[in-house]
Amino acid sequence: MMKDAGLLRGDVARRAGVHRETIRYYERIGLLPRPARSRSGYRLYPPEVVAHIEFIKRAQSLGFSLDEIRQIIQLSRSGRSPCARVRQLLGAKLKEIDRRIAELTEFRQELAAFLEELESVPDQVDSSAQVCALIERSSINITMKPKSSGRRE
Amino acid sequence: MMKDAGLLRGDVARRAGVHRETIRYYERIGLLPRPARSRSGYRLYPPEVVAHIEFIKRAQSLGFSLDEIRQIIQLSRSGRSPCARVRQLLGAKLKEIDRRIAELTEFRQELAAFLEELESVPDQVDSSAQVCALIERSSINITMKPKSSGRRE
DNA sequence: CTTGACCTTGTACCTCACTCCACAGTTTAT
DNA sequence: ATAAACTGTGGAGTGAGGTACAAGGTCAAG
User: Fold this and answer.
1) Distance CA A76, CA B22 (A)
2) Of B10-19, B34-43, B134-143, which range is least confident?
3) Is residue A151 part of a domain?
4) Is A2 within 8 Å of chain B by CB?
């Protein structure tokens, strides 16, 4: 019994690289469909569910909330019979992604410009040691005092 | 008294577009420096703090955690006396951003391909109505059953 | 026929990033 | 001079996204 009927929750978790409980959680919030069950109540998943979870994780790491991802999935699933509304929403998602890419690019520029500035200044051995030690500790103690501005009250 | 000594917390919040309490929270977790205080204890901020908060918000919307942002800021601040370690870490951040951009681009392709597929299929008025109504409700009820696979247990 | 590794359920708990609250003092506007 | 609109504090509460746990059932191997 149970030879080839589907993947168990643990198998799916291992293959998709998520916690076992995460799968149950996704099911609870409607992000994954209720799967088939064995007679004894075990969840039995078709292999596609792995790719499905990977999609969720990818979208999530790209800044979409589980709620948005649920919407995207609804859009895709309902795609069997498309309509204007679906296309419109999906188009909006694309615009959003484009915006995000543009912002990231800009942010990248900001950091890169700063890095370049750093490169142009040669290492000063004296202060370097302290500064690096400070970064290494990396605790909660940035002071970040306004580099040159007195005048308060 | 208090004419021009600095911005009050509420002013900063309004200008930066965040909740007043968020500023105090950022200070608590070391993301913003403890500001000067008026004799009566009011926080007095230099105008730069607004840009600083905007930077945090931007980075955050791009998928960085407050903890990561704190690290980036530490890097920038310590930049007055740069060292190899700082440059290395900042370089790593840049690589990370590049990776994120690449992933977003890929994801965009995925959705766009799907959308294109939708476009090619003409609206079928019959099923459309139901599907769109379903999306409109957009509750917690996607069923998303494997579109064509029986064979369980 | 028991052991160990799986599975079930509900519920409690955790971190992150806020956000709100009560109670008290300060500043400004009328 | 008094009300309105700010500010301060510590601490509790919220919502998203999980994770952990206890008590029990199931299944393949030895």
Assistant:
1) 37
2) B134-143
3) no
4) yes
